[in-house]
Specification:
- Helix content is 83%, strand content 0%.
- The protein is an all-alpha fold and 466 residues long.
- The protein is globular and about 65 Å long.
């Protein structure tokens, strides 16, 4: 009788797989020596998204209650302009600090901001005045902190490893979004909006601890096998401890057709998404005017996010890994455009509250699960600087550029077009999705070329194969 896998490992002098491996292998192909790091990364991003989805319903409630859906959209455009400067600052900081210190200082900066908002609240600053600044701040926080996490994850894994493990790590993000909505619904009445900020800040502090644990674990794991691996692997410890090379994020992006296509992919995706958010906000605004329940808007957004994240968890757990395994990342990027095309076509025929709610929930759910995983996986074949800097600029500037275009569209329509309606915005989205699909085709072609070149390089660098 053959020995089990665990017994064979013990006979070879290796440790038997731990608890993390036994759990994670149910969901994806994971190797025993990868399991703990993958589990910690999944828990880390779970906590990051939990913190964000405590802040997000508060942000949306404050701005829509005090200023309305139109102002919310225009402020997204303001955030996009500010992100040009944020990206430049981030690039300079990233060139001076190792990855673990970079993540630590950036996260501590945002935690300190949360403390400032809470102090302003205690000082008597009203929600109307604070709502504008808080809305812009949350948008910047989300994009920068999440982008640097995925840069960290990309830095740890090769393309093949990422294809196996990213769907599982991304599930942590989706589950964190669901948990954040649940926590907000539970605690907003007994604690109030601003006390929840402190809860979010405390969770972010725990995330810093996880970053250091993961970093130290990976460095020690590589050092432990230095004598058994190639010279290329021996240099990996030194490389990962160093700051990034100097150079602007925008320069990296505009030198690469592939990265530029990803930028336009993100821009169009968020242009369409923001138009959809505007549609949702308008129907929610009408409903809020008729409601008598206290904290109606906070609870509405928290419950809506719960629906989208529940759908996203289902997709992440049962669909994403299978699409990656059977079709790959190049096919995965087409799924959301196809869903959005059908959804907004039906909304353009009549923007009923229930229809808009479910179309937006499905769109967001697919975005935050399958497309989120695919988008980050696209960077697995890029350089280390591109993983951090170029990914940050696509996740920040191009993301918010979509907000600017959506704001401009709504401003022009509401100001100069008498026939403007929610259905018209949905029809614009239908046209934009068709353009988005063309960008997906271009990314498909470039990824195929770059992946083939990378494979040729790896084969060439194998010992004795020159």
């Amino acid at each position: 009788m053959k020995n089990s896998g665990n017994e064979e490992m013990v006979q070879r002098g290796q440790k038997a797989p731990g608890f993390a491996y036994k759990i994670l292998r149910i969901f994806t192909v994971v190797h025993p020596d990868e399991a703990l790091t993958v589990f910690l990364l999944t828990l880390n991003v779970f906590l990051l998204l939990t913190a964000y989805y405590i802040l997000k319903p508060i942000r949306d409630a404050l701005i829509v209650e005090e200023w309305g859906a139109n102002i919310k959209l225009y402020l997204s455009a303001v955030a996009a302009v500010l992100l040009i400067f944020v990206v430049k600052i981030f690039s300079r900081i990233a060139s001076k600090f190792p990855r673990q210190k970079l993540i630590t200082w950036v996260t501590l900066f945002f935690i300190s901001n949360i403390g400032i908002f809470y102090i302003l609240h205690l000082s008597g600053v009203g929600p109307r005045a604070m709502g504008i600044v808080f809305f812009i701040w949350v948008g910047i926080f989300n994009l920068v902190v999440i982008a640097q996490f995925w840069g960290f994850a990309n830095d740890l894994y090769t393309e093949d490893e990422g294809k196996r493990l990213f769907p599982l790590i991304a599930f942590g993000a989706v589950f964190g979004g669901f948990a954040g909505g649940i926590i907000t619904n539970w605690l907003v009445d007994p604690l109030g909006k601003f006390q929840l900020l402190l809860v979010s800040g405390g969770i972010l502090g725990i995330c810093i601890l996880f970053t250091w644990i993961i970093h130290q674990r990976e460095i020690k794991r590589i050092e432990a096998k230095v004598s058994k691996v190639s010279q290329e692997e021996k240099l990996k410890v030194e490389v990962q401890e160093k700051p990034l090379e100097k150079g602007g994020a925008f320069q990296l992006l505009f030198k690469s057709r592939y990265l530029l296509y990803i930028g336009f992919f993100v821009l169009l995706m968020n242009f369409i998404n923001t138009n959809g958010v505007f549609i949702l906000d308008k129907v929610a605004e009408v409903a809020a005017a008729k409601a008598i329940e206290t904290e109606f808007m906070t609870k509405f957004y928290a419950s809506f996010y719960n629906i989208q994240n529940l759908f996203a968890m289902f997709v992440q757990l049962f669909v994403v890994s299978r699409i990656f395994k059977w079709f790959g990342v190049r096919v995965a990027i087409f799924v959301l455009p196809v869903l959005a095309l059908g959804g907004y076509f039906f909304v353009s025929l009549g923007a009923a509250l229930v229809l808009v709610k479910w179309v937006k929930a499905i769109e967001n759910g697919a975005d935050y699960s399958l497309v989120n995983t695919a988008r980050h996986s696209l960077f697995l074949i890029t350089s280390r600087e591109e993983k951090y800097k170029a990914q940050a600029v696509t996740k920040t500037f191009f993301h918010r550029a979509g907000d600017v275009m959506a704001a401009l569209l709504v401003f022009l329509c509401t100001t100069y077009l008498a026939f403007f309606s929610i259905e018209n915005v949905a029809m614009v989205n239908v046209v934009l999705v068709l353009i988005w699909i063309i960008i997906c085709i271009l990314i498909f072609q470039e990824h195929k070329k770059l992946s083939a070149k990378r494979t040729e390089y790896v084969e060439y660098m194998k010992p004795g194969e020159k």
